[in-house]
Amino acid sequence: MTVILDDPVRALADYVSHDSVSADSCFASGVAAARDFACERLRELGFTVEIVKTPINPVVLATRGDPSWPHLVIYGHYDVQPPDPLDLWVSDPFEATVRDGRLYGRGAADNKGPQIVHMTALHRVLKENPDLPLRITYLIEGEEEIGSPSFRGFLEERKDSLLGELLLVSDTGSPGPDQLVVTTGLRGLTALEVKLFGPRQDLHSGVHGGALLNPLQALMKIGSSLHDDEGRVTVPGFYDAVVAPEQWEREELSRLPLTEDKYAEFLGIDEFSPPPGYSPLEAIRFCPTLEFNGVGGGYQGEGSKTVIPAEAFAKITCRLVPNQSSEDIANKVKAAVEQFCPSAIRCEVFVKGGGDPYVVIPPGKPGSSGSEPHLMKKAFDVAEGCIEGSFGTKPIYLREGGSIPIIRDLKEVAGLESLMIGLFTNEDNLHSPNESFDLEIMEKAISTFEAFFKQLAT
Ligand code: BES
Ligand code: MN
């Protein structure tokens, strides 16, 4: 019998064709179709599949194997980011197209390609040995790209099915097809929205200008007060809980085959601005940030309009590192914004959620406990050999700048540590136009995971 996973590139093209944008309810049917696609593949692999309802998009929960066997949990997300701006895509974001060894489409790398890698490897292993003595629970959610609002509730309800020894995740990055990274940490996140209110409605700036403070001017004052001239965040207490990276982490970073010049060229910038004491490549993983993701207010149309706007807003997120807490930083940023806001303007700050940072110390590295579950030790050990076997180099163990808040929740609620093997690269354009997945990485990674699943079960 032939199944879709016999041809992983076709399988990925199919998966990408379901436009599962979680941020926009217009895409509800694509979200459902991508979920069905994932369920079908898992059923073909012999899993018992359950679709667990949540307030927004259901979670796919699937299991195989005997409860007495070592238990691996595998995480993925079937939702994707919005494809906008559409006019910058070379081909349709939801009609997968292969060009120059890459499969283009929204979600190809984040996170559909890596899921097809795991599933294809399992398909090959289970075809050879249907009784592989490894219990596997699959957990594929549909709200990752909107901050997983339903996940905590799901977890509290279903944690008993997730009491495994390790979580396998491939939703992080690597330098390229010759060098993979085992991700040892993710930054946390806290999101805030600032609203500033001036006069009761937009005003003629000639008739009234000079008498009152413009909310946009107040917004810019607040904005410029939140960093100092050297790039440090000025929010009182912002850095209090930050712990410096370990020596081994700096050594691992020095193995990264990426120069600052190449990185600047990739970004299209002439100059970096990391905070004092950190190189750019250190700053993106070891330092917290405060970023403006969007600001607005006043006239945005063509030509000029002489107006004093009634309102202005800013959307802010902070990336957090150990041992900062999302709640604590949200409160500190809120207090600082309120304090920097001129008294003539009314200011409201809304905390929009987030998650705490996560680190895992690979078994055997300085600081590791030595009492990790057997399957966790074995998996880290086996992964290194399997990666070297297919990619020709040992992985680099590195923290990453991005966030997957549920990884920390799974540790807190179900005691699961994560083995995160990065399969996408900077060139894959995550969250940007022309997202793609490198098919060379895909092929090498499938053989890596084939060997990994086999060895983990022996
Ligand atoms: N896969 C990414 C996270 C990621 C990217 C980790 C690069 C490591 C390296 C994930 O899908 C993502 O984009 N997460 C969001 C989380 C947010 C929506 C709560 C992020 O990091 O912005
Ligand atoms: Mn992702």
Describe the 3D structure.
The protein contains twelve helices and 18 strands. The protein is α+β, with helices and mostly antiparallel strands. It has two domains: 4-186 and 357-456, Aminopeptidase; 188-242 and 288-355, Alpha-Beta Plaits. The strands form four sheets. Strands 1, 2, 3, 6, 7, 8, 15, 16 and 17 form a nine-stranded mixed beta sheet that branches. Helix 1 (8-17) packs across helix 3. The model has no long low-confidence stretch (mean pLDDT 97). Ligand BES binds at residues 110, 144-145, 147, 171-173, 186, 189, 400, 402-405.
Q: Give the bound compounds.
A: ligand BES, manganese (II) ion
Number of strands: 18
Query: Whole-number average pLDDT?
Result: 97
Helix-strand topology string: HHEEEEEHEHEEEEHHHHEEEHEEHEHEEH
Total helix count? Answer: 12
CATH topology value of the largest domain: Aminopeptidase
Residues in helices, as a percent range: 25-40%
- Please tell me the total number of domains: 2
Q: What's the architecture of the largest domain, going by CATH? A: 3-Layer(aba) Sandwich
Q: What structural category characterises the helix and strand content? A: alpha+beta
CATH first level of the largest domain: Alpha Beta
The main pleated sheet reads as: 9 strands, mixed
* Strand coverage percent: 15-25%
Q: Poorly predicted ranges (pLDDT <50, ≥5 residues)?
A: none
Overall radius of gyration: 24 Å
